[in-house]
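Worked example

This section walks through a single chain of length 384. The input is the sequence exactly as stored; nothing has been trimmed or padded.
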Amino acid sequence: MLESRRIYLPPLSLIGPGAINDLGEELKSLPYKKALFVTDNVLVKIGVAQKVIDVIKASGVEVVMYDHVQPNPTVKNVNEGLEMLHEHNCDFILTLGGGSPQDCGKAIGILATNGGEINEYEGIHKSLKKSLPLIAINTTAGTASEVTINYVITDEVRHIKMVMVDKNCLVSIAVNDPVLMLGKPAALTAATGMDALTHAIETYITKGAFAWSDTLALSAIKLIYKSLEKAVKNGSDLEARSHMAWGQFIAGQAFSNAGLGYVHSMAHQLGGMYDLPHGVANAILLPHVERFNIPSCAHKLKKVARAMGISVLDMSDLEGANAAIEAIEKLSKAVGIPSGLGELGVKEEDFEEMAKNALLDVCTGGNPREVTLEDTIAIYKAAM
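Given that input, the structure is written out below as tokens.
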């Protein structure tokens, strides 16, 4: 409790049913005139983007749309969006979607004020200037990019995900309106929800954890574990969607300030190599990595089990840790996550290259147990 900490949070967060309308009122008081609206074509096709654009335009702001963001945003996406921003003289960036549009928008914002190529910013706090103003509207309960100092961009040439941790990418306003999350496909809800659960669990056991992040992480685990299956089974359950929005929101604040671990390091490689959904990769790897981590954090994994509602009073730390992992596996199965990487076309011949890159990932240093190349390959094999 005597250590000093830096806590990075958006200056303003709007959360809860109807929060998008609050953003409209907020925009009226801001000096912004023209937004680069970064989203994906799915949200355009189902009409969510237009609903948001109507709110924005009603506030007197012009909108220029870039809707080609891929599920794992690429360097090409960033460069295309940046070119459009300059072409139309946009004075701020507004993102709509899950982590993909949010991350792409952050990258565009950093390049808009700092220049250069996006690969120059891979790593920790590489930019010198604050991003062009960013407003992030979240539509999935998962990545929490709208509240973090992190973003991830895929390098299509090297087939790797570049992880950027940068205080200058923090958004000005974060919006989490669960109404915008209603009716989303079950598979997307499951994948993004398991991503949020992974954030909460990894943050709780990471080397960088501290009292504040622990409190947030455990609260997030409770909310997500009791609500995710309900949201998957009934996409119109506003209460479940609201609980998931809050769960991912506070998990994001926790990991943005405490760090993550080796689940993310390994999952990033699956995204870079195979373009797999990040949440699915996390969900498959989570129990296997935490099983590996037990020798270093069994006592904390036991508390994870308790946060999931498991009675651990008469359990040893080891028993409690195993109960947590079994509960994670049970939830994954209940929400339809594939049972292994083999189902997704992953090949053992790629394990060594992915393992080498995982060891270099920015999240690796936060893992509670030291990991070797051989350990990593063994975990990938166990997850097949």
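What to look for: Residues 12-180 form a domain with the Rossmann fold fold (CATH 3.40.50.1970).
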